[in-house]
Each structure stands twice: as structure tokens, then as C-alpha cells.
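In response to the reviewer comment on reproducibility (Comment 2.3), we provide here a single inverse folding case reported in full, input and output, so that an independent group could reproduce the run without further information from us. The C-alpha cells appear first.
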């Protein structure tokens, strides 16, 4: 019952065996039809491994990580998907696509592929593409490949093109 393991549990009965140079055929009991033989040739095993690895590959994250208005965070935030900051962050942000909304405030380091600032950022910025919105205020040492400052946006600090 509980805590005891049946001696047959966890083993698969061998129902059929075919002798061949390159493969060994084994039926896997209830998990497959009785007459289906599992091919264990190197090609079949390799294809199975590739299929298994593909099924284990983590999905691309498309839903954004959102730090809402009124939320305050101190520390390090990393995200593989988009990140939207409407609250207050003191620390480090790292991600592919980060947006600091109008209500958002970041004091620290931001590392991103794409950074859009609509609110306030103090500290250091490292990104490929930096967009400073019309109501934004950025006071940071900024390292970027491209920059767009929209009319009304304010940026100060050291600006470095990568």
C-alpha cells in the first residue's frame, strides 16, 4: 500500500524480441499497442532525443512582466519577456524589452535590448535601442546603439553611442 513498492512496479515487460544487427525491438506493454515494436536503432534513438529535447525547450515568453503603479521593489529583476514598469524600482533591471511607463520610476541600472522611457530613470542605462518619450525624464549614463528623444522628453548625463 503506502510506502511499499511492488516488485513489478516501474519495470516494463518485454513481450517481443527481434534480433537484428542494428536494432533491438521491445514492446512497451500497456503504453503502446501489443503489436507495435519500439525501434532502438541509432537513427531512431537520435530522432527521439531531438523530439524530446524540442518538447523540453522552454517556450518563448510573450506575456509581459508588470510591476504595477503603487508597487515598490528593491533588488534585481530579470525577465526573458517584455517588462512594464509602472511602479518604483530601486536596483537592477535586465530584459529584452523594457518599458518604464509615465508613472514609473527606476533608480539603478537598466540593461535591455530595447528600452522605452515614458517616466523617470536615474542611474545607468545599457541598451541597443533607447526611446525617451515626450513626458520622460532620464538622468543617467546611457550606452546605446540608437536613441530617439521625442519632443518634450528630457535626457541628461553622459550619452555614449556603442
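Designed residues, in position order:
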Amino acid at each position: 500500500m503506502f510506502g511499499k513498492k511492488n516488485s513489478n512496479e516501474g519495470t516494463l515487460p518485454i513481450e517481443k524480441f527481434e534480433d537484428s544487427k542494428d536494432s533491438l525491438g521491445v514492446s512497451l506493454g500497456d503504453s503502446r499497442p501489443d503489436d507495435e515494436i519500439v525501434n532502438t536503432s541509432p537513427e531512431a534513438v537520435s530522432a527521439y532525443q531531438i523530439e524530446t529535447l524540442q518538447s523540453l525547450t522552454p517556450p518563448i515568453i510573450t506575456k509581459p512582466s508588470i510591476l504595477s503603479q503603487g508597487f515598490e521593489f528593491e533588488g534585481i529583476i530579470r525577465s526573458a519577456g517584455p517588462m512594464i514598469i509602472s511602479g518604483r524600482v530601486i536596483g537592477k533591471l535586465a530584459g529584452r524589452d523594457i518599458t518604464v511607463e509615465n508613472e514609473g520610476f527606476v533608480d539603478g541600472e537598466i540593461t535591455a535590448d530595447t528600452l522605452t522611457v515614458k517616466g523617470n530613470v536615474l542611474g545607468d542605462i545599457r541598451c541597443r535601442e533607447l526611446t525617451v518619450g515626450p513626458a520622460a525624464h532620464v538622468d543617467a549614463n546611457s550606452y546605446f546603439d540608437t536613441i530617439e528623444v521625442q519632443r518634450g522628453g528630457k535626457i541628461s548625463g553622459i550619452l555614449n553611442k556603442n
